[in-house]
Automatic annotation (TrEMBL):
<feature type="transmembrane region" description="Helical">
    <location>
        <begin position="62"/>
        <end position="84"/>
    </location>
</feature>
<dbReference type="GO" id="GO:0016020">
    <property type="term" value="C:membrane"/>
</dbReference>
<feature type="transmembrane region" description="Helical">
    <location>
        <begin position="29"/>
        <end position="50"/>
    </location>
</feature>
<keyword id="KW-0812">Transmembrane</keyword>
<dbReference type="GO" id="GO:0015179">
    <property type="term" value="F:L-amino acid transmembrane transporter activity"/>
</dbReference>
<keyword id="KW-0472">Membrane</keyword>
<dbReference type="Pfam" id="PF13520">
    <property type="entry name" value="AA_permease_2"/>
</dbReference>
<feature type="transmembrane region" description="Helical">
    <location>
        <begin position="407"/>
        <end position="430"/>
    </location>
</feature>
<dbReference type="InterPro" id="IPR002293">
    <property type="entry name" value="AA/rel_permease1"/>
</dbReference>
<feature type="transmembrane region" description="Helical">
    <location>
        <begin position="374"/>
        <end position="395"/>
    </location>
</feature>
<feature type="transmembrane region" description="Helical">
    <location>
        <begin position="149"/>
        <end position="170"/>
    </location>
</feature>
<protein>
    <submittedName>
        <fullName>Uncharacterized protein</fullName>
    </submittedName>
</protein>
<feature type="transmembrane region" description="Helical">
    <location>
        <begin position="254"/>
        <end position="277"/>
    </location>
</feature>
<feature type="transmembrane region" description="Helical">
    <location>
        <begin position="297"/>
        <end position="317"/>
    </location>
</feature>
<feature type="transmembrane region" description="Helical">
    <location>
        <begin position="436"/>
        <end position="454"/>
    </location>
</feature>
<feature type="transmembrane region" description="Helical">
    <location>
        <begin position="118"/>
        <end position="137"/>
    </location>
</feature>
<feature type="transmembrane region" description="Helical">
    <location>
        <begin position="350"/>
        <end position="368"/>
    </location>
</feature>
């Protein structure tokens, strides 16, 4: 033990002797604008251009669908405010994982990590990548259907581009996100302005009898909220990179509030624009709502819309690959994942192994093409763990009332958000028992893995020896090392 202390002291001295630029750790390079861009850029992906069909189909009327969009925005904002408190209370990166670890314990945290790696992140990334590939390829084949193989190939190229950027430089990835966010906001404005102008001129016939709810059934309403909430998904990605945010006590809450208010207003206005220029029947038969809208309202600019939607998808894909690997990085640092994934490239200062880990899973899922069923899996599991994280926040407040909380959300908001999340998750078990049951089974498959490998390792010594050897060889091959300073 004495030798260990001497070694630690020696290493600490060596780190102090190094220049700041030589110390291996993730730097705080994300200011307010990149933080806002990360949230908006991840939220505004393919969802707003695809999800309106699902919301209308399951809500049953134009008026109720607009109410669902507004309520989804309010609910997502409530959740984002809860995560602003969690992000300023617990200064570690890792988002959902670290909050479950700090409030409810290691098993729920490990299961969140397990679900993220096994199906949530690959499914979401594959869905967005396929949307990107579809919007890039389709304009070249109108009026014919594009070859599915070509769509998948372009989707893989998009994923490869995003992975390369996030492996190369945190700064380049952040600047790319800012640029893509400005482009996608331009796309939303391009849809909103013609719709609002037409509405101001009295084009309101599609809103007549907007609240006819004859086709509404209670079991379909949660699915309408799932479609809307999917379009708002991504408000939690800033919490994945807390350790890289400059002045997180100020910038995390401010970025979240600015982003979510902006997105909610834009989404409601976009849907108003859709319904102004299209009937409900036209929207329901359209597989690409934004393109159908452009053919009605933007005759000269119609070819530009698929390009802007593709850029929007690319921005969401970049945001996902920027944030999600940090969860695996922190999980490995906490001992819940192989140690190689807690390492950083010695020159690039990026979590290279954690980024690369997701790449083959996404490519395999893209090639197989079994995406949409897994999206249902991902939605159920994601919202279950979000509800558990905010419930854990309320429990932590009760257990540790004196714990410093630089930003504190009103208790009513936290309780309302948690109850609504559990309600939606519970109703979805009734509405879609097959997919949600499968999600439960896949998530719970991590329980034996946890007790075999993390809680108390029962793996044979020969397996551990092979694992350590592989970790060492990968560390040399990838030129990575563990952090030399604590960043939280």
């Amino acid at each position: 033990m004495g030798m260990d202390k001497v070694q630690a002291k020696k290493e600490g001295g060596e780190i102090k002797d190094k220049k700041e630029g030589e110390v291996i750790h993730l730097r705080r390079t994300i200011g307010l604008l990149p933080a806002v861009s990360l949230v908006i850029g991840t939220v505004v992906g393919s969802g707003i251009f695809i999800a309106p069909k699902g919301v209308l189909m399951n809500s049953g009327s134009v008026g109720l669908s607009l109410v669902v969009w507004a309520l989804c925005g309010v609910l997502s904002t409530f959740g984002a405010l809860c995560y602003a408190e969690l992000g300023t209370t617990f200064k570690k990166s890792g988002g959902h994982y670290i909050y479950l670890l700090e409030t409810l314990g290691p098993l729920p945290a490990f299961l969140r990590l397990w679900a993220e790696y096994l199906f949530i992140r690959p499914a979401v990334a594959s869905y967005v990548a396929l949307a990107f590939g579809r919007y890039v390829v389709e304009p070249f084949f109108i009026p014919c259907a594009p070859p599915p193989v070509l769509i998948k190939l372009v989707s893989i190229l998009g994923v490869t581009f995003v992975v390369a950027i996030n492996c190369w430089s945190v700064t380049v990835a952040s600047r790319t996100q800012v640029t893509l966010t400005f482009i996608k906001m331009f796309a939303l404005i391009l849809i909103i302005v013609p719709g609002i102008i037409a509405l101001a001129r009295g084009q309101t016939e599609n809103f007549q009898n907007g609240f006819e709810i004859d086709t509404l059934t209670l079991d379909k309403l949660p699915l309408a909220f799932y479609s809307g909430l999917y379009a708002y998904g991504g408000w939690f990605y800033l919490n994945f990179v807390t350790e890289e945010v400059i002045n997180p006590n100020r910038n995390i809450p401010l970025a979240i509030i600015v982003s979510m208010v902006t997105v909610t207003v834009c989404y409601v206005l976009v849907n108003v624009a859709y319904y102004t220029m299209m009937t409900a029947e036209e929207l329901l038969v359209s597989d690409a709502v934004a393109v159908t809208f452009a053919s009605h309202a933007l005759h000269g600019l119609a070819p530009v819309i698929p390009v802007l939607v593709a850029v929007s998808c690319l921005g969401a894909l970049n945001g996902g690959f920027f944030g999600s690997p940090r969860m695996l990085f922190v999980g490995a640092r906490e001992g819940h994942w192989p140690v190689i994934f807690s390492m950083i490239h010695v020159r690039r200062r990026t979590p290279l192994p954690a980024v690369l880990l997701l790449y083959p899973l996404v490519v395999v899922m893209l090639v197989r093409g079994e995406i949409f069923q897994l999206i249902s899996f991902a939605s159920f599991s994601r919202w279950l763990f979000i509800a558990l994280a905010t419930m854990g926040m309320v429990i932590h407040r009760y257990r540790f009332p004196l714990h410093p909380r630089p930003f504190k959300v009103p208790l009513a908001i936290a309780v309302t958000f948690t109850v609504v999340c559990f309600f939606i998750v519970g109703l979805s078990l009734y509405s879609d028992p097959w997919n949600t049951g499968g999600s439960c089974a896949l998530t719970l498959s991590g329980v034996p893995v946890y007790y075999l490998t993390v809680h108390r390792s029962r793996l044979p010594a020969s397996w551990m020896k092979v694992s350590n050897y592989c970790n060492k060889q990968l560390q040399i091959l990838l030129e990575v090392a563990q952090q030399e300073v604590q960043t939280y």
